[in-house]
Design brief:
344 residues; Four Helix Bundle (Hemerythrin (Met), subunit A); Rossmann fold; 2 domains; seven-stranded mixed β-sheet; 13 strands; 42% helix
Length: 344
Amino acid sequence: MKLEAISFKNDTLKIIDQTLLPKQIKIITLASLNKSIEAIKKLRVRGAPAIGIIAAYSIFLEAKLLTEKGSLSQKSFNIICKRVALSRPTAVNLFFAINKMKSAYSNFNERTSNILLEELKKCALSIHAEDRKSCEKIGYFGTKIFKEYNNVITHCNAGILATGGNGTALSVLYETFKINKKLHVYVDETRPLGQGARLTYFELSQNNVPCTLLSDNAAGSLFSQNLIDAVVVGADRIALNGDFANKIGTFPLAVLAKHFNIPFYVAAPDSTFDMNAENSRDIPIEMRSKEEVVSFWGIGNSDNYNVYNPAFDITPAEFVTAIITNLGVIEKPDKNKILNILQP
């Protein structure tokens, strides 16, 4: 089954509502900026690259709407961008896309409205297309590493549903499976929202990749039995020193990998690197509502519950064997190596 998480045709933006997976595949239309922002906040669309793509299309569509009303200006455009920027703080691809759209606007804001809108649309389409190409490249470079691995574990969802293409971490696995039919993927459940259970397992099984679901706290058991050959995860933001943010629960997996001397890989496009973040201290961590945790247990009245629910954690660069990017592989990442590949 070929999923299409994001569709943009005839100036209409559609997504799969990921909050309903795997029970229901429902396509929803993001017909307004409010709906797009709600979709990002409520995780109807998630995954750093996908959020960036949705942001770009949504900015274009809102600019088009304001143009039709005769109210598009530099000020109103900046307001659009600011509202989108406030939707989620950690995924740097969101801000990458916003800045690209701002540049497109600045370059053409003195032209006619038709030319301006065409350039904004072209910019949004290019962000989507580039991400698709990036996924392909990540899969290509990753396969060279993973072709010898049979049992791999991943966390959260870094696949078709999280990107504009075949994914980042899952692109590596999809491409590897083409040449190594012994590949088997262990899928962390990824509490509290179950992106692994609901999305990654769904994706892999739909694409006939053998996989096994486990609760997050069962991973150590697999490592201790020598049942894991490698770890691969995605990333929402990577600092220049190689520290990175990913879905909560990633860091414990990295600690396990280091303890058992298992290689730990990150797969992400160049747009996930934050050129303004020197290290983990410069990465904001989004805090989510307590209902996401307590609702799983059917706790109706959560007023008396104090809940710690960060959406992401930080994994220091020292735990990373390599970062697989669309530009190549960065082994034992540090600032010099990262800048060398980002700014050759």
